[in-house]
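INSTRUCTION: Work out how this chain folds

Fields: amino acid sequence; protein C-alpha cells

Chain under study, with its fold:
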Amino acid sequence: MNNLTVNVSFIDERGVWLNSDGLTNTTNELTPSVLSQKYGLDVTNPNDFNLLRQPISSASVAARGFTKPYPAFPSGASLAQALRPFPQFGNIGDHYEHNGNWWYDALQVKVTKRLSRGLSGGLGFSWSKNLGTVGATNQPTFTTAMPIQDPSQPPMSAKSYENIDQPLMLNFYFNYELPAFSFDQRGWKRALLSGWTTDGIFRYQSGFPMPTPGSTSTLTSVTFGDAVWANRVPGQKLFLHSLNSHNVNPRTTFFLNPAAWANPPLGHYATSKPFYGDFRGPRYPNEQLGFGKVMPLTEGLRFSLRADFFNVFNRWAYPNLNMGSPFTTPQHGSDGSIVNGFGFFGDGISGAGGNYAPRSGEFVARIEF
C-alpha cells in the first residue's frame, strides 16, 4: 500500500561499568565460608548460629576460645561483630564503584498510515526484556544497585528484571475526517454534515514487576549482608486473584498467595531474585477520544467545536498493594476489612477509581477569523 509504511527493528543494548553503589558492600561483611574456614563456625548449625549472636562476654563464647578483638571492644557486642574484618565499625559502604551491568533487548514494530480518504494514524508495538544489576529508576547515573544477598557472590549474581521492565507495550492513534458527500455542499446540509473529525490515542502495557518478599531469616544478623529474600515454592501460583480483575471486594480480599513463598533453611541465603517476570502489578491502559467540527460562517470566519474525553471507557485500577510478608498472620478489622497480611488493600483503597482519574471530558468552542 502506497500510504502505509511498516518498520521492524531489533534493539540489543548493553551497559557496562555503570555506577553501582551498594552492589558489593563486602568490606565489613562476613560470609558463611569465612566463618566456617577461618573460625570453625557453621551458620547452618543452630548452636553455632546462636553462639554468633551471643555477647562477646558470654561464657559460652569464651568456652569456644573467642576473646575481644581489642580491649575497648564493647562487652555487649556480639561475637559476630567481633569477627568482622573491622570490628570497631558497622557497615562500610562501597561507593563510586563501576561494576554494574544493564541488558535491554526489544523487538519494535512501527506502522504509519499516511493521510488518505480522510484517515491517518500510527501504531507502535514493543516486545522487550530489561535486566540489570543496577536500579533503572536512577538512569542514566545508575547509582543504586540490586541488593546481593550473599556477599561472597560476584556482582553478576544480582542480575534480575528491572523494576521498570514492561515486556509488552502497544500504542496507537488515529485521526479521521468525515468525507464530503455530494449532497452536503451547500446550505444547512453543509453546516450540519461536513467538517466532522474524530481522533484517539490508546496505550496498553504490561504491569511493572513487584519486589520479591523478604523472609524472616535472621542470617544477616551474623553475616551483615543486605537481605535474605523468601524462596519461591515450585508449583504454587503467585496470585490468589488477578490484580486486573475487579470482581472481588478489595477491602476483604487477599490477592497474593503466601503459600508461594517459603523461608530459606537456617544459615542459607535464598535462591530467589529481586524481581520476577511473572510477579507483576496491574496493567494501566490509557484511552482518549476526541471529536470536532468546523463550520464555515462567511469568508474568513468560521466556528469550531471540540470535545475531548479522557479515560473514555472509565477504566480503573487498584492502587499500590500492601505487600506485607507472606509469613504474617492475617488480621481483620471489626468491619471485616483486612488490616494486616500479605498482598491486600484493605482500607488503603480510596474510591472506585483507585489511582485512576475517573472519566472526564472538556468542550471547547472557538471563533476563528
In short: The longest helix spans residues 32-39. The longest strand covers residues 100-116. The chain has a mean pLDDT of 87.
